[in-house]
Structures are given as C-alpha cells and as structure tokens.
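Customer escalation, tier 2.

The customer says the design service returned an amino acid string that "doesn't look like it belongs to this structure." They asked us to rerun it and document both sides in this ticket. The original structure tokens are below, unchanged.
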C-alpha cells in the first residue's frame, strides 16, 4: 500500500495507524532521510540541505536508504510506504522493486485537503516539532513541488484503478475511520509478502535467507546488465578502500547486539578475524563476480564456529551474528551505492543484485558454519564425557586433586552435602534410550528430594549409572520420598548416606555401591530403592560372602529353610526382635492377632532348636541377612521341613 499526500495532510499519523491496524511495517521516506541527515555524514548534509529548501532529495540517495528497509519489510510480511514515490520515475522504480520482491501494489490511498488548511496545519506543527522545513516560504515551495511532481501520480494510479481518495480535512480519527472503511470494502487478494487487510497482531514472519536471495532473482529484470555489474564492482571497490571502518562497525554491532557472544579476549579476537575475512571475501565476490559455490568458508570463521560449539554457546547466537553482520554490511554497501550517480533503474537493479550476492554469501557460509558447529559439538561432548569420567575416577580413588578445577570440569560443586546414587534398569534392554531414561529418573528423584541444581550423572554401561544428588548446605535426604516418586517400575535406586565434601563424595558413593550389591544379591525382583542405612550390616557381611551362608545356616538352623512357612516365621521373629520382644507391638506392626505372633515366635525358636537367650544379636543379624538376601543364604527345603496345613493357616 502507498500513501500519497501533500505535506500537512497527516500521512505520517495515518500511516502509523494503518500499519498497526494491518500488522505491517510503516516506512516513511521523510523519516529515514531525516535520520540520515542527523547522522551528520556528507550524504546527511546533502539531505538536510534539500529538506531545508523543501526540494526533493536525489533519487539515488532515496533509493540507497529506502530499498534495504523495503526489502527487509517485504521479507517480514509487507509494508506501507509513506512519502514514496514522489515522482513518476520513483513510481516506476517502486513498481519494479515490488515485482522483484513479489509484493504487488494493491492500493494507493490519496489524502487530500485544501492548500489553506495544509498551510495552517504545517505552521501550527512548526511550533510543536520545530522542523526546519515548516517555515512559510518552504511550506509554499513544498506544496508547489507536490502539485508539480507528485500530483501527476494521482492520475497515474487512478488510471490503474487502485486509487482511493479520502478527505483529510477532518479530525484524524475520522480520517482513519474513513480509510479503514474504504479499504475494508475492497476485496484485496492476500498473497506472499502482501499486506493483508483486517489482520490482527503484527508478528513478523521471518523469511529464510535463501528465500531472500531467491526473491531478488527475477528473470524478467536484467541485473546482469554490464552497467549494473560495473556499478556493483565500483561500489565494492569503494567499500574496500574503507574496509577497516566497515569491519570494525560489523564487529562492534555484533558484540553489542548479541550478549552471548561477549566472550573472553582470545575468542573475541577470533570473532574479529572471522568478521574481517567474511567482509573481505564478500567484497571480493561482489567486485570480481566470483562464483559463490566455489567459495569455501574462511578458516577463521570455521574456527570461531568450532570454538562456540566447545563453549556450549548456542548455534542460534552464531546464526544471529551472521544475520546482524549481514544487515550491517548491507547498510554500508547500500550507503556507498547512494554516493554513485546512476539512473534510478540501474541503482535499483544494482541494489537488488548486491542484496542477492550478500544474502547468497551469508546463506552459503552459514550452512558451512552449521556443519562445522555440529561436528565440533559432537566431538566435544564425547571428549567432555571422557574428561568428566576421568575426574570422577580420580576423586573416587582418593587421589589429591585440584578441587576447583574438578568442579569446573564436572559442572558440579564438590564442597557441599551430597548423596551417592547407583541406578540401574532391571530389564536391561541396553539401548542409549535406557541411559536417557535413567538420567531422567535421577533428575526426577533429585527434584522430589528438593536438590540444589542438577545431579552429577555418569553412565556406567548401557543400563546402569552413578550419580550424586547435590544437597547444598542441607544434611538430610528423604529416600522414602524418592522411592514414592512416580517412575518406571523397572528402574532401581541404591542410595548412600548424606555426606559432605570431596571425602563424603567418595564415601556416599561406596555406600550406594554396597547397598546396590545387597539389592542385586536379593535376586529378582530387586527392591525398587534401597538405602545404605537399611542394609549396612548386610552389605558388610556380603564382602565375606563365602562365610556368610554357612554362618546364617548355623545361626538359624532349621529356621533358615527356604520355604514360605519358614519365611513367615523369620519375618515375624525379626519384627519381634526389633520391637524389643513385645508380642503386642509385633502384632500391631504386622497386623496379626497376638496369639498368632506368639505361635510363630515359638515355632521359630523350635526351628532354631534353642532359646533366643544370649544369641539374640546374632539371630537378628542373620534374620536381616535372610530378609535382604533371600534364597542365596538359605538352606534347601526338605520334606520334613514342609509346612503343615495348620502352620499354613497360622
Ligand atoms: P515528509 O516527511 O514526507 O514531509 O518529507 C520531508 C522531506 O523529505 C521532503 O520535503 C523531501 O525533501 C524529502 N523527501 C521525502 N520523501 C522523499 C522522496 N520520496 N523523494 C525525495 N525526497 C523526499
């Protein structure tokens, strides 16, 4: 959409409102020119002089500033152009640009008001905004320029049947309402890169660079004309003469815009080299028309991508650097283009040709960057896991180590309370997903236990892993909460006790390993979670496994028979001993009748073949061993041991 209006008709206000309504960018030629004038460059001074006189600014300057903004806005969903075109030559260039960007001009809104009204408004605005061109003489001249040079455009667009004239001599809200009303009455075809009427919100749609490069390629327009190629080459040569400033500006802009890239000195130096070589290469491609496909990515750029991968800087930051650098570099090239006098058609073709080269270059190089980054990340992750595993081995072997360095490698604070964990999958399918499942389950347990930060996780093999849960300054851990956490049934945990610092790191881990040994020795199904404190004596007994079973058999005698009847007697006797020999408490804990407890305790003693007496401690330990280790420490069931019907019902 174009907004055509004499000075003072309110096209700035209406343009902004319409852009917000349609969710597209509002591009005001006058504003862009004024911003450049304020920058105080040579070109800026020329613009300021034209504007102060009320004359039009030369076309190549206008194109140089406007075209990059239009190209970008087209890629983001469309635009409203205000104050451009102002001449028939500009109208032709605007149409051509639209065609190349796949944006069709659908409607031209012309705001009209009597000259006296416009003059009065502009003089009033002079008091508020202090614009240099709002003096009586200049206003008169600007209105005259409008009538003479821009006026013919009204007929031009009317002939094409796309002109909508709105009376601007009414309050701004009424003008807005009338424009919206008139536009809503039109049936405008929505299409790629076009303004869509009635669209709400203004989410920019970002177009991949490749598409942008494609958009600029239009077979109908001969961008390869010798004059265009020559102009591009001249511009590239001119930018090359001031390449130091350009490189620095691109570098500074990237560092300013992307905080993630503000790294230490060596990495920043690499970024600077990467920018330098990209700027140089791109200029050479433009100057000498080198075939892009044959251009390899500069070594510094590849190295920089690798370094970011090693540091874990996201790839999106690197790609953003290319986008930001692209915009900044394009700006320099187009600013330079504006200094080279040429006819509008050549300027416009050269602009698009250069945009195509730069976008194509960025697209081509970023693909190589993505590849370099991905490869490096993979290698680095592999090495990092190896480095972490080595550190953990050092810690566990009790070697003297540099604690701070180890903390950095592990990404885990050693100087805190932790709980060692061993986790494993019961039905070991042995896939990489198994490890992911274990890692997720460990994180879940850490979450349930209110841990500070992520657990340290080290895969051991395809279906088991070691981990440490960080407790910070807290010296308690509720394994029961972890046990209750909703998780896959076939995942098992063994926990050490809470322990502090580097030494504690080792001890709690050893405890977890010992607890796991108990869980595994128990045979299947292994308990879901076991803590070292529950099984400590049994775990230690397991270290003399060959002595353990004979000892249990001699201590418990017939009570160590591996059948259900004796299992019941053993459990009852264990609880009875834990309860300090109270039948009542045992009955409550097991939810049995007191008589049943008395019967079972008597039967258990009979099986042992002697009174509990002084041997109580040993019997309790042996019972704990049978509780956790089951069949592996029991004697075979014999015919004479088989339970009687009465015992079964008891
Ligand atoms: P505006 O803000 O639209 O009133 O424009 C202010 C001044 O900027 C004009 O008087 C011209 O000097 C300059 N200008 C704005 N748009 C154009 C254009 N399309 N072509 C040339 N000069 C322009």
């Amino acid at each position: 959409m174009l907004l055509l209006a004499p000075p003072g008709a309110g096209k700035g206000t209406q343009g902004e409102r319409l852009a917000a309504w349609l969710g597209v960018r509002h591009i005001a030629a006058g504003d862009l020119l004024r911003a450049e004038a304020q920058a105080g460059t040579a070109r800026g001074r020329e613009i300021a002089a034209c504007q102060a006189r009320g004359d039009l600014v030369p076309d190549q300057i206008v194109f140089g500033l406007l075209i990059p903004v239009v190209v970008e806005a087209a890629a983001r969903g469309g635009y409203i152009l205000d104050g451009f075109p102002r001449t028939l030559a500009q109208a032709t260039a605007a149409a051509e640009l639209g065609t190349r960007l796949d944006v069709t001009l659908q409607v031209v809104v012309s705001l009209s008001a009597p000259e006296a009204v416009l003059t009065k408004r502009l003089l009033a605005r002079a008091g508020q905004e202090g614009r240099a061109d709002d003096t009586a003489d200049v206003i008169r001249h600007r209105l005259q320029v409008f009538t003479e040079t821009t006026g013919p455009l009204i007929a031009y667009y009317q002939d094409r049947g796309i002109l909508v004239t709105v009376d601007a001599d009414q309050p701004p809200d009424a003008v807005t309402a009338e424009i919206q009303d008139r536009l809503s009455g039109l049936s405008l075809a929505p299409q790629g890169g076009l303004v869509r009427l009635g669209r709400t919100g203004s989410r920019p749609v970002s177009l991949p660079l490749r598409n942008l490069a494609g958009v600029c390629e239009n077979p109908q327009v001969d961008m390869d004309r010798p004059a265009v190629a020559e102009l591009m080459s001249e511009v590239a040569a001119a930018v090359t003469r001031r390449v130091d400033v350009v490189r620095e500006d691109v570098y500074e802009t990237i560092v300013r815009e992307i905080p993630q890239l503000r790294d230490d000195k060596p990495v920043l130096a690499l970024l600077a080299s990467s920018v330098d070589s990209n700027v140089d290469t791109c200029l050479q491609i433009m100057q000498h028309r080198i075939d892009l496909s044959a251009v390899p990515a500069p070594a510094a750029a590849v190295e920089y991508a690798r370094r970011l991968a090693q540091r874990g800087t996201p790839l999106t930051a690197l790609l953003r650097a290319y986008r930001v650098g692209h915009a900044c570099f394009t700006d320099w090239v187009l600013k330079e283009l504006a200094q080279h006098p040429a006819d509008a058609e050549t300027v416009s073709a050269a602009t698009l040709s250069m945009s195509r080269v730069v976008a194509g270059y960025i697209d081509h190089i970023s693909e190589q960057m993505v590849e370099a980054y991905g490869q490096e990340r993979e290698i680095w992750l592999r090495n990092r896991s190896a480095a972490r595993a080595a550190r953990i081995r050092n810690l566990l072997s009790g070697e003297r180590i540099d604690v701070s360095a180890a903390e950095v490698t592990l990404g885990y604070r050693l100087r805190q309370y932790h709980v060692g964990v061993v986790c494993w999958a019961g039905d070991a399918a042995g896939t990489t997903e198994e490890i992911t499942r274990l890692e997720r389950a460990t994180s879940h347990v850490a979450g349930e236990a209110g841990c500070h930060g992520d657990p340290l996780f080290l895969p051991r093999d395809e279906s088991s892993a070691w981990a440490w849960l960080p407790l910070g300054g807290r010296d308690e851990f509720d394994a029961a909460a972890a046990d209750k956490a909703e998780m896959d049934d076939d995942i098992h945990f063994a926990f050490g006790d809470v322990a502090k610092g580097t030494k504690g790191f080792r001890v709690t881990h050893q405890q977890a390993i010992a607890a796991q040994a108990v869980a595994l020795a128990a045979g299947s199904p292994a308990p879901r979670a076991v803590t070292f404190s529950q099984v400590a004596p049994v775990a230690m007994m397991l270290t003399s496994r060959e002595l353990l079973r004979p000892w249990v058999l001699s201590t418990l005698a017939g009570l160590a028979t591996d059948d259900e009847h004796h299992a019941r007697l053993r459990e009852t006797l264990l609880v009875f001993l834990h309860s300090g020999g109270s039948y009542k408490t045992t009955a409550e804990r097991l939810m049995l009748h007191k008589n049943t407890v008395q019967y079972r305790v008597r039967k258990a003693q009979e099986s042992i073949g002697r009174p509990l007496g002084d041997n109580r401690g040993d019997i309790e330990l042996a019972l704990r061993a049978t509780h956790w280790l089951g069949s592996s420490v029991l004697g075979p069931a014999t015919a004479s041991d088989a339970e009687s019907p009465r015992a079964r019902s008891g």
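Tier 2 assessment: The sequence is consistent with the input. Strands lie at 2-4, 25-28, 79-82, 108-112, 163-167, 417-425, 456-459, 464-472, 491-500, 529-531. Residues 7, 29-30, 33, 50-51, 54-57, 62, 83-84, 86, 90, 133, 142 surround adenosine monophosphate (CB under 6 Å). Sent an explanation to the customer and offered a walkthrough call.
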